[in-house]
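FYI - complex with adenosine-5'-diphosphate, inputs then prediction.
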Amino acid sequence: MILVINSGSSSVKYQLIDLDAPERRVTGKIERIGEAGSDVPDHEAALKRVAEEVAMDSGELVAIGHRVVHGGPDLTGPVLITDEVVQKIAEAVPLAPLHNPANLAGIEIARKMRPDLPQIAVFDTAFHAAMPAAARTYAVDREIAERYGVRRYGFHGTSTAFVAREAARFAERPAAANVIVLHLGNGASATAVAAGRCVDTSMGMTPLEGLVMGTRSGDVDPGAIFHLLRAGLPADQVEEMLNHHSGLAGLCGDNDMRRVLERVKAGDAAAATAYGVYCHRLRRYIGAFCAVLGKVDVIAFTGGVGENSAQVRRDALGGLEPMGIRLDPMRNSGGAGDAPRRVSADNSRVTVLVVPTDEELEIARETSAVVARTKSQ
Ligand code: ADP
């Protein structure tokens, strides 16, 4: 049994997974950490609750896998957590101030609870570490970029790796497929994968870059930010605005795509604008990544929006028949479930799939692989 812990700023999610029977798993979520009126004052209390719910002292537990958002420049693959690794995750806090501190809190408490167990960190940035320099590098002053660590990292890597592999397998091109993964949840990213390796991704130094998201802006001209700073808005407020009051929420007040679609249907103009900007940006990245890859075998949709919204898939891909992309309207609007499914037409050169993501299973697999490697050394 492997315990997967995703320790966020206000919640701790966990799954207890047996890799021999991953469909039977125990899952749970401790919410409202540190909020007024909550009986979970801090991460220590939350992890204690997890320990009670999953019998963390059980002898069946062989390892704990922790989701960590940012591995910084050095942690480019899943690793056994040591004091040195904890130090490196702490050094990456300035790169992910909203996420890494909570991830670290979970790690430190779990290590205190089960110092005997191997604990593994699995990074959202790791899959993108293979990105070529041309895609990873911002065209800014080199010395300053190096001194301050300004470069592109990419996120959603664990989900993207899982989906790209499932998609390639489904398309019966397991080793060689060129895949565009569109992870559309609250956060959203597009990634170009060639034969299992990331060659470009839409998120950058932070998860702010790229697609329009629930509350994040995605791409904005940096000049607009200086304009706001010079107009007197404090930097913290601009950052807060771009992360929490932008994207769909910024444009129409709702970050939930289901609500946005309901309002579009009812003729709401602000929701229609938000939806239009969302789909336009998505098409722009799909086009860009078709060019980056040259030849695309599979486009895979995942995440709450990507898996469930036939309308978003249709509006992202409609009219792209000249690029070899043709949806089948019946397949696109039907079906559900946990298995990958084809939504493209039989005569579509590019296979379009819906691939439900399973980040926790991927973390459990990575955790198990690191444990096996460590043992054999
Ligand atoms: P997170 O990124 O927080 O893990 P999810 O991947 O669950 O989030 O995605 C959440 C998003 O998925 C929300 O915007 C929600 O509205 C959207 N979503 C879920 N079901 C549907 C649906 N049937 N149609 C459109 N959007 C949906």
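The CA atoms of residues 63 and 117 lie 6 Å apart. The pocket of adenosine-5'-diphosphate is lined by residues 185-187, 214, 256-258, 261, 303-305, 308-309 (CB under 6 Å).
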